[in-house]
């Protein structure tokens, strides 16, 4: 494992990690992490993939982890076009990895917010998005997304782009717990693994209240990637795997994830599969029984590359 600084086309320094070895890899996995977390939390998963013959690259997205550098800078993408900038970061990272490994296939894996980044990448760069794994994604075609975007826009305009709204936090974090029985923390919806939840809570780079600017960019991005005209732009030859826990409130306990699957299926994507892991919550890569998820992912990759 090695830490590297990656400089984007707009001169932003991104904290990047790569898990590589002294062997020729079967393929490369490029990870986009979720909201209010960071790439260091994927170390177990990345090392598992490495042990199975894959190289792994990942990075802290703008406003996250070591890319943000300090906790007061968490939760902010960019002054303008924040969501497009984040999607472009992934594209530039993809280009970097492809330059390093020109003869290797790249699997694009995104969790939660990272899945939205990948889904944007899919319609912006369909010729590159050939192997896709979406974890903990959500349906963007609902009233809550539209209402949240309008609320974030209003708060951003009236309170300022760096304002951190408790109401917006409630919509994205606190409300997810309402479907979790006997919850004892604000983040029980993440997983049944109490140690994982405790580590998340104690991590200063996780679970922060993000800015109004971030939420506006996020909800606008989700709305955009969910539009039929953009879904129809994706590569119909792409191989797509959608994964979620059956008890993940972000994916509406499977219902929202199923709608995402159907939207791609209806756009004539030929090779798309969905898997709900029974009883698991949002972070299936950090959940009780996560080895089952790891094995399923490796099996799918080996079958499809």
TrEMBL record:
**PANTHER family in the cross-refs:** PHOSPHOLIPASE-RELATED (PTHR11614)
Keyword field contains Nucleotide-binding: no
InterPro entries in alphabetical order = AB_hydrolase_fold, Hydrolase_4, MAG_DAG_Lipase
- Domain (Serine aminopeptidase S33): give its ranges: 25-287
Name the chain's protein: Alpha/beta hydrolase
At the top level, the lineage of the source is Bacteria
Q: Which SUPFAM superfamilies match?
A: alpha/beta-Hydrolases
Gene3D superfamilies recorded: alpha/beta hydrolase
GO MF terms listed in the record are:
hydrolase activity
């Amino acid at each position: 494992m090695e830490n590297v600084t990656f400089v984007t086309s707009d001169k932003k320094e991104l904290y990047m990690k790569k898990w590589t070895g002294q062997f020729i890899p079967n393929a490369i996995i490029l990870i986009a992490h979720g909201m209010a977390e960071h790439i260091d939390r994927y170390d177990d998963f990345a090392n598992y993939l490495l042990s199975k013959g894959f190289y792994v690259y990942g990075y802290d997205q703008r406003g996250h982890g070591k890319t943000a550098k300090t906790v007061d800078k968490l939760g902010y993408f960019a002054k303008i076009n924040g969501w497009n900038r984040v999607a472009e970061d992934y594209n530039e990272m993809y280009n970097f990895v492809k330059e390093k490994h020109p003869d290797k296939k790249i699997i694009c894996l995104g969790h939660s917010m990272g899945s939205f980044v990948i889904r944007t990448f899919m319609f912006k760069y369909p010729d590159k998005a050939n192997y896709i794994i979406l974890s903990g994604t959500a349906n963007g075609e609902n009233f809550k997304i539209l209402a949240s975007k309008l609320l974030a826009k209003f708060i951003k305009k009236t309170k300022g782009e760096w304002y951190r709204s408790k109401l917006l936090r409630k919509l994205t974090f606190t409300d997810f717990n309402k479907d979790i029985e006997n919850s004892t923390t604000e983040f029980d919806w993440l997983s049944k693994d109490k140690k994982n939840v405790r580590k998340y809570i104690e991590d200063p780079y996780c679970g922060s209240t993000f800015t109004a600017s971030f939420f506006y960019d996020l909800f606008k991005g989700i709305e955009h990637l969910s539009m039929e005209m953009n879904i129809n732009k994706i590569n119909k030859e792409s191989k797509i795997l959608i994964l979620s826990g059956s008890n993940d409130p972000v994916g509406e306990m499977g219902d929202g994830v199923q709608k995402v699957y159907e939207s791609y299926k209806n756009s004539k994507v030929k090779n798309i599969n969905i898997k709900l892991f029974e009883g698991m919550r949002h972070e299936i890569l950090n959940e009780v029984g996560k080895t089952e998820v790891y094995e399923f992912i490796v099996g799918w990759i080996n079958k499809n590359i």
